[in-house]
Amino acid sequence: MIRFALRNMFQNKIRLTISVGGVALALLLILSLDAIFTGVEQRLTVYINNSGADIFVAQSGVRNMHMASSSLPVTTIRDVEAVPGVAAVTPILYLSNMLVTGDERNLAYIIGLPEEAELGVPWRISSGSSFPGKDEAIIDRNVAEESGVNLGDKVKILGKDFEVTGLSEETSSLVNSIAFISIDDFAMLRGGTDTISFLLVKVKEGESPQFVAERIEAQVKDVTAQTSAVFAATERQVVKDMSTDVITIMNLIGFLIGLAVMGLTVYTATLSRKREYGVLKALGARNGQLYRAVLSQALLSVAFGFVIALAITLLLSAVIPLLGLSMVLEVSAASLVKVGSFSVVIAGIAAILPIRQIAGLDPAMVFRGR
Predict the structure, then answer these.
(1) Residue 302: CA atoms inside 13 Å, Cβ hemisphere, count?
(2) Taking CA 126 as the corner, what is the angle to CA 124 and CA 130, rounded to the nearest 5 degrees?
(3) Which comes out higher in pLDDT, residue 354 or 339?
(4) Residue 190: helix, strand or coil by DSSP?
(5) Which three-class secondary structure state does DSSP give residue 27?
(6) What is the pLDDT of residue 135?
(7) Could you state, in order of their start, the residue ranges of all structural domains in the chain?
(8) Could you tell me the pLDDT band of residue 299, with boundaries at 50, 70 and 90?
(9) Cα(153)–Cα(326) distance, rounded to whole angstroms?
(10) Residue 161: which residues within 8 A CB-CB, separation 6 or more?
(11) Which of 35, 84, 147, 207 has the largest count of CB atoms under 10 Å?
(12) What residue spans of 207-332 are helical by DSSP H?
């Protein structure tokens, strides 16, 4: 029956192109929406993931950076350094604020770095210096290009003009970007040098970050210590909670479009071959065999469409970053499993109506010329 389904599909190349192409476009919509959201998630935690820190220490109760504020006394640095298993500690100041370039305003994570910081520094520089000095800033290359800013130009951060001395890569998303200035400039603008925002901790070789984080919370008062993995997961969850309704609606629309397109193409393709199914029934084929033929055709259409949609999505994920856009597409295994499962369900549902018509097919119609 699979051989018959393949022959049935490939007999008319135009119908095959339309049916498989429609399925591919529907699945491309679902895959690309998931890839865009996953890419946004990855870029939102890109600083955490590339900080080099094993543990993030924040004010008690603070478990993420997005839309959060943390304030720790500078004495916490010494207290954390004294915890067994801690190899290095880098304090940073952090604030979500506007990066003003000319007439444009871009939301950015502003990171204040101490001199010779070991952790939390820009991890990839496309041009210029890799560390901000006094009155200097490192901003994202995409943001600079979109705003017409070059090395040596001025940008306004926290109300003060900074000279752009470095351009970083992989530090922007659809939501925001990351800008680096010195911790001294940050403290002066904020009006105090007695507090810091977060501590980035590197553990000693052979130590478990989770165990060291627990030690920090047990020995240092009024702090929350989390491994970088947990800290990043919490950050992503915050974004999911803020946009779940929008993403759910978008995916539901894509799902319904896919269901309608697949149902229509499978239904039309099956009915256009009623005479062939009638011949099979006249030759003694049972309804179960015909059911398998129709289901095989539906599943094959979805399989071909899925492969095409995935190939286009992967191509877009490779091409879009080359265009200098802040958008990133990231195809995840979870997305493939979800879309693949939905596709199988859709194919099964789409085959129900034609199958019911095939069940009542009169073999004699073939010989009456109907």
Answers:
(1) 27
(2) 60
(3) 339
(4) helix
(5) helix
(6) 95
(7) 2-44+243-367, 61-221
(8) confident
(9) 21
(10) 135, 154, 155
(11) 35
(12) 209-219, 228-271, 274-282, 287-319
SS3 26: helix
Mean pLDDT, the chain, as a whole number?
83
Residue given tokens 């192409």 in the structure block? 21
Q: Which structure tokens are listed for 190? A: 């904020």
Q: Are 112 and 160 in contact (CB under 8 A)?
A: no
> What does the alpha-carbon distance between residue 251 and residue 150 come to, in Å, rounded to a whole number?
39
Whether residue 359 contacts residue 287, with contact meaning beta carbons closer than 8 Å, is answered with yes
Tell me, what amino acid is at 63? R
* Three-state DSSP state, 360: coil
- Beta-carbon neighbour count of residue 359 at 10 Å? 11
Q: Is the pTM of this model over 0.85?
A: no
Tokens coding 210: 């989770």
Angle at which helices 333-350 and 13-44 cross, to 10°: 150
Q: Whole-angstrom Cα distance, residue 77 to residue 54?
A: 16
Residue appearing with tokens 């859709």: 346
C-alpha torsion sign, points 257, 261, 262, 267: positive
The one-letter amino acid at 289 = Q
d(CA 347, CA 26): 13
Contacts of residue 359, defined as CB under 8 A and 6 or more positions apart, other chains included, come to 287, 290, 291
List the Cα angle 218/222/226 in 5-degree steps. 65
CA 204 to chain centre: 32
Residue in 232, 253, 248, 227 with CA at minimum distance from that of residue 41: 232
Q: Is 104 helix (H, G, I), strand (E, B) or coil?
A: strand
Question: Within a 10 A sphere around the Cβ of 161, how many other Cβ atoms?
Answer: 11
Handedness of CA 158, 140, 30, 269 (dihedral sign): positive
The three-state secondary structure class of 311 is helix
Helix boundaries (H) for 174-227? 183-190, 209-219
Tell me how crowded residue 142 is: count the other CB atoms within 10 A of its CB: 23
Beta carbons of 120 and 51 less than 8 angstroms apart: yes
Contact 175, 44 (CB under 8 A): yes
The tens digit of pLDDT for each residue in 240-250 reads: 676 656 666 77
